[in-house]
Structure prediction request, 222 residues.
Amino acid sequence: MPKSYVNEARKAVGRRRDRIRPIIERLAVEHADARIALTFRSPLELLVSVMLSAQTTDVNVNRVTATLFEKYHAPEDYLAVPQEELERDIFATGFYRQKARSIRGTMRMLLEDYDGEVPRTIPELVRLPGVARKTANVVAAELGDAQGIVVDTHVRRLSQRLGLTRQEDPVKIERDLVKLVPRADWARFPHLLIWHGRRVCDARRPRCEDCVLVDLCPSSRV
Prediction:
């Protein structure tokens, strides 16, 4: 189980529903450039990039896909080579055997069930091999129809520190967040938390003195 930050939220700073809009508004100004860090040109490239991003950095994925996407353009391309060749092509992302199996299984299902197109709904996306809810949420949101809120390690940590949830499980955290965050903000909200988590609200040494949410955060150390 990852470290919990729930118990850091000790100060009284108001109701969650009263704080959520100013939290979003301030972060939107502070991180106006917040967006997905993965590089892609099509729904298929997006899907593959997100699948490769498990247990590695976005920078590493982009380094691999810069070459990968010049070689593989359509679902058929991923199935036209031996699995061992695809494994070599994605080796640097780690867990390459499992990722290669998942990608090839996904490509097969795209061709058999979706006419080679990436589906847009969460129920359809999670049917794909190797695609869990987090991946499905990312893909749906980036394709313009957020149907939930992505919960990664940054979103989990900041949601707990901000007192937006007392849950530990990402699925339960998402349930709390979708009740609070306006649907129009479901796509950008995780990006705002992710970028704030990278730039300011560090896991070990949060820079509360530089945080625009200091008066809204029950975990503030200032």
Q: What stands out?
A: The chain has a mean pLDDT of 97. The two ends are 28 Å apart (CA to CA). The chain is about 50% helix and 0% strand. Residues 17 and 180 are 6 Å apart (CA to CA).
